[in-house]
Design goal:
276 residues, TIM Barrel, two-stranded antiparallel sheet, 14 strands, globular
């Protein structure tokens, strides 16, 4: 298969070497860097970033994407703070040899319901456009992840944001579980033909519509196998990044432990074998 596997190492352990030891054992040679040593990537010093680079080189693991928290902030806040965060993240990404940066689409003032989120699409798009302009000028790719409680939670709103920004520096991460957790059914049949044109990264995570609980790929309602088939037919040769959340599905991160990540990788490989 043309796909390359990556994973969020902090789903395995806090210590970076513990993360990489398991990934290498599972033959996953790419890393989505969100945190190490309980330090979020945005808060890492140059010395810590240099340590990440050194350890990754020792294990022959490349950093595929920076799992930044940019955009997981209130939409009413001045954008200056997130622009500064982006500039720092670009410095970190450059040090680690990747051009990919994961971002989000901002929290509306009231997240008790998403019934009013459409009214924030224009503001969110304007903010994303500013971030994308900076990224484009510096040769980076911003990857917008669909996520509950941010403006871009449903396929319709994600598509609206991407169309409004209309910048090749802003692409889309398809996360099947996150769509399930906002009640999206039959996501591939309904939305792939439109939203799929913006996809340049995939998160492998599944969930169940009944209660929103996470599950290994193929065991929930995220249509992960159908997604993989669409990618295969469409000639996608990019990254499938495991973000399984099998032990803890937190608000800003998740955890799977060594056993959970092993289950997640094996479940994905079963699906890949089925569509080979």
């Amino acid at each position: 298969m043309p796909f390359t596997l990556s994973a969020f190492g902090d789903e395995i352990a806090s210590d970076l070497e513990d993360q990489l030891k398991l990934l290498v054992a599972l033959d996953v040679r790419q890393l989505d860097l969100r945190a190490a040593w309980d330090v979020n990537v945005l808060r890492m010093s140059d010395e810590q970033v240099a340590r990440v680079k050194k350890i990754c080189a020792e294990y022959s693991v490349e950093v595929a994407c920076i799992g930044s928290p940019i955009g997981k902030s209130p939409i009413v806040n001045p954008i200056d703070g997130e622009l500064a965060n982006l500039r720092r993240i670009m410095e970190i990404a450059a040090m680690l040899g990747t051009k990919r940066i994961r971002i989000f689409s901002f929290y509306p003032p009231d997240i008790s319901t998403n019934a009013h989120y459409d009214q924030h699409v224009e503001d969110s798009a304007a903010r994303l456009a500013q971030l994308a302009e900076v990224a484009e000028k510096n040769g980076f790719s911003l990857l917008l992840e669909n996520e509950k409680e941010v403006v871009g939670d449903t396929p319709e709103r994600c598509l609206s944001l991407l169309r409004r920004v209309n910048n090749p520096a802003l692409r889309f991460i398809w996360d099947p579980a996150n769509f399930v957790q906002v009640g999206v059914e039959n996501q591939i049949e309904k939305f792939w033909d439109t939203l799929g044109t913006y996809v340049s990264y995939i998160h492998i995570k599944d969930a169940r519509l009944a209660d929103g609980s996470v599950a290994p790929a193929g065991e929930g309602d995220g249509q992960v196998k159908d997604l993989l088939l669409k990618l295969k037919v469409g000639g996608y040769d990019g990254i499938l990044s495991l973000e399984p959340h099998l032990a803890v599905a937190g608000h800003s991160s998740g955890f799977s432990d060594k056993g959970g990540m092993t289950i997640a990788v094996n479940a994905l490989r079963v699906l890949l074998a089925e569509i080979a």
